[in-house]
Design a protein that fits this description.
The complex is a heterodimer of chains A (611) and B (136). Chain A is of the alpha+beta class. Chain A is built from 17 helices and 19 strands. Chain B is mainly α. Chain B has a two-stranded antiparallel ribbon with strand order 1-2. In chain B, a hairpin with a 2-residue loop joins strand 1 and strand 2 (42-43). The chains are: A alpha+beta (611), B mainly alpha (136). At the A-B interface, helix 16 and helix 17 of A face helix 5 and helix 6 of B.
Chain lengths: 611, 136
């Protein structure tokens, strides 16, 4: 263990606030990020409070400027299905929207806070996911969404707030649960600009993120053991890293570092660019059909799996921008919270605009304690289960629990070792008794009764022997682990992880500029090609479309360095179509051929058996 | 592998049929070149038959080179043969849907495509690096 991962310890009597401060993570942002953790009071003061009733009406409850945390938590009667929400950016007129976008561009130039995407997400995915992505983008026309100019207006509003009060706030909470001391750090952002700022999945007003540190007590000292950062698509064990996993965790002056996704504010242990693919919510029969096709395509035809309904997005967590926390460019303002904090427990509404998006991607989140529908949030009421730690005892207790397990099994083994010979003896006695009864027809009834007893005893003895055998194997495993634990040996720190978030290698693409350009224009080229086919050769429109698509896919594969794989896939697909045509046209002759081959094969097999 | 190689070899010779088919229909083997190849600055139907045959002959010559590479288990020969089969299948399917289908070519292409996509064949030619893993 090196100096960076050497575990700092604090006395178990350390006040909660000091615990939070000692382990507070350092947040490193990507250059170009526009929103940082802020205090909720300022946000609420700059917002209006609304209610959305089940009949679709939106009602202004408290005007912007009149609202504060005290008014936010006032009890308000409402019908079932009502959604309360804050609105940070009021609806913009066309001229206000245009002005906001122009001012945003000027502000970025002034601050030199420009984001460079590098290899864009469209170039990282294939042409089919790109086409599906176009449909996904088009879906925003039907779904509720946060208007594009809102992000610009939010960026300007937040900039003005920062000029007035340039503080960075986290909300800290300490929970003691099952031998663990959990330090939770909640971060509030007034806006998530992943889609508008970084070509991501969604935009929404307000954003809540959490990072947790899990400590245990030993010899009256608190020692950090695990960290868990909230991140897309990951849950339970996959969120957790061990403090001494130096390949996964970076430290700054003894504080763990969180690399924050640009716009999305998702948290990562390692800096880099992460592919965040989203699966479209397809009907079950389409998904089943796709799975069946993939099974045939990969297992029978030996091709690479295809899923055009996975749309690639990039989460940039480069850590090359602002850093908040120890050794960073900015310092934290910590604020402790608990269930007793009124705005935490008494406001169940959304912390930003309710965009009426049915799949919720564009709706603002609720607070740390609640989900959007007002139900309790798992990370709050079950911080251990949130990181898959509910089944993991703290290290000192793990040894005790293991020793107890070994003792229990040993005791049971001793009992079994006495019980098995006893039962086996009874069985033998029954067996000899039954043997003696054979050949005596008048004992048939008793014989049948004893035989049933014998069968039951056979089952019991077999069960006991199996249990003894299995216990011996289990005890061997547990004893081995116990020995290793006593010697201080530790498990692989990543043994619990099933899906590890790994940053993508950005240098793996060849012809990078050409690939980017191609990714940007390929869909338009396809559409123009369709128009040309419709005008020039309407008779051959379908064939032309197929050939055009194959051509585009082939060009794409050259740029992506997957030409061989793609050509193989296309040719096998065409061969499947041809095979289907041949079977339809010549099924009779194929049947005759199969019957003849079978006949000759069987004949050859049988003739071998003839002397 | 030997069986696959011989299958592909046989299929390749079947494809030579494409070279001679236009000449057979044009009666070149019976009467020789008796008609004009060009008229009014463009090919006559006889000229087209000769052009088609010549094109297929050039393809067949290329095919021989590919075949040599294939029998020597060169990676490039697998790629060229797969591309060729893909193009041939596209043309054959186009013919099927819009004019006369050539089922012999279609069948041979189909067999070649499936033979080339076999995991063992791909490993032999260095197309597939690990069992069940990603292609190159």
């Amino acid at each position: 263990m090196n100096a960076s991962t050497e575990r700092p310890t604090l006395p178990a009597s350390t006040p909660d606030f000091d615990l939070l401060r000692r382990f507070e993570p350092v947040l490193r942002f990507t250059k170009g990020e526009q929103f940082f953790p802020m205090d909720v009071g300022t946000h609420v003061k700059e917002s209006s409070l609304w209610s959305h009733s089940p009949d679709g009406r939106d009602t202004l409850l408290v005007r912007q400027g009149d609202l504060d945390l005290e008014k936010l938590v006032q009890p308000r009667d409402a019908a079932f299905g009502t959604v309360h929400y804050l609105r940070f950016i009021e609806p913009l007129s066309l001229s206000e929207a245009a002005r906001a976008l122009a001012d945003q561009a000027r502000l970025r130039t002034k601050l030199k806070n420009h984001f460079h995407a590098g290899l864009g997400r469209l170039a990282r995915g294939g042409i089919l996911p790109r086409l599906v992505d176009a449909l996904f983008s088009a879906s925003f026309l039907l779904r509720g969404r946060v208007p594009a100019a809102s992000a610009a207006a939010a960026e300007l509003a937040y900039f003005r707030l920062r000029r007035r009060n340039d503080t960075y706030t986290y909300y800290g909470r300490v929970v003691r649960n099952n031998g663990w001391v959990v330090l939770q750090y909640w971060y509030f952002y007034c806006y998530n600009s992943w889609r508008s700022g970084f070509n991501g999945v969604n935009d929404h007003e307000a954003d809540w993120e959490v990072a947790s540190i899990y400590l245990y007590e030993q010899d009256s000292r608190l020692i950090p053991e695990w960290l868990a950062y909230a991140s897309h698509d990951f849950k339970g064990d996959d969120l957790r890293r061990r403090w001494d996993d130096e390949d996964e965790i970076n430290f700054a002056d003894g504080h763990p570092v969180v690399y924050v996704g640009a716009g999305s504010h998702a948290s990562y242990f390692r800096k880099g660019e992460y592919m965040a693919e989203i699966n479209l919510d397809l009907p079950g029969w389409v998904r089943r059909g796709l799975n069946a096709w993939n099974k045939f395509w990969t297992e029978t035809l030996g091709q690479q799996p295809v899923d055009p309904f996975r749309i690639p997005f990039v989460d940039y967590a480069r850590g090359d921008g602002l850093a908040i926390g120890s050794n960073g460019t900015e310092n934290w303002t910590p604020v402790p919270i608990a269930e007793s904090t009124p705005w935490v427990s008494q406001y169940r509404g959304l912390w930003g605009l309710f965009a009426q998006d049915p799949i919720s991607g564009e709706n603002a989140p609720a607070g740390p304690m609640y989900n959007r529908d007002g139900s309790p949030r798992g990370a709050w009421y079950d911080p251990l289960g949130f990181a898959g730690l509910d089944k993991v005892p703290p290290p000192p207790e793990a040894l005790n629990l293991l020793e107890k397990n070994c003792r229990d099994i040993t005791t049971r083994q001793e009992k079994l070792e006495a019980l098995i010979p006893e039962k086996a003896g009874q069985l033998q006695s029954l067996g000899i008794k039954l043997k003696g009864m054979e050949g005596n027809p008048h004992l048939a009834k008793q014989y049948a009764s004893l035989e049933r007893q014998k069968d039951a005893l056979v089952g019991e003895v077999r069960g006991l022997r199996r249990e003894h055998f299995e216990n011996a194997a289990l005890l061997q495993g547990l004893t081995g682990r116990l020995e290793r634990m006593r010697q201080g040996a530790r498990d692989d720190p990543r043994a619990h992880i099933r899906h590890l978030a790994i940053p993508v290698k950005t240098a793996r693409m060849r012809f990078e500029n050409a690939t980017q350009t191609w990714a940007a224009i390929s869909q338009s080229v396809l559409l123009i090609g369709i128009v040309v086919l419709m005008v020039a050769t309407p008779k051959y429109i379908i064939a032309g479309l197929v050939i055009l698509t194959l051509l585009l896919v082939a060009i794409e594969s050259v740029l992506r360095g997957a030409f061989v794989q793609t050509v193989g896939g296309i040719t096998v697909f065409l061969a499947m179509v041809s095979a289907a045509i041949l079977i339809i046209h010549f099924w009779y002759w194929i049947l005759i051929g199969v019957l003849l081959i079978t006949a000759f094969f069987l004949m050859a097999q049988r003739l071998r058996e003839v002397d | 592998m030997t069986i696959v190689a011989w299958t592909i070899l046989v299929m390749f010779f079947v494809r030579l049929y494409q070279v001679f088919e236009p000449l057979l229909f044009a009666g070149v083997f019976e009467h020789g070149i008796t008609e004009a190849l060009f008229q009014d600055g463009w090919f006559t139907s006889f000229g087209f038959a000769m052009l088609t045959s010549a094109a297929y002959a050039a393809l067949s010559l290329t095919g021989i080179i590919v075949l040599v590479g294939f029998l020597r288990m060169k990676r490039w020969s697998w790629v060229v043969l797969m591309v060729w089969t893909g193009i041939s299948l596209t043309i054959t399917l186009f013919d099927y849907f819009y004019s006369e289908a050539n089922y012999i070519i279609m069948a041979s292409d189909t067999i070649v495509a499936f033979a080339l996509s076999q995991a063992d064949v791909q490993r032999i030619f260095g197309i597939r690096t690990d069992p069940g893993e990603r292609l190159d």
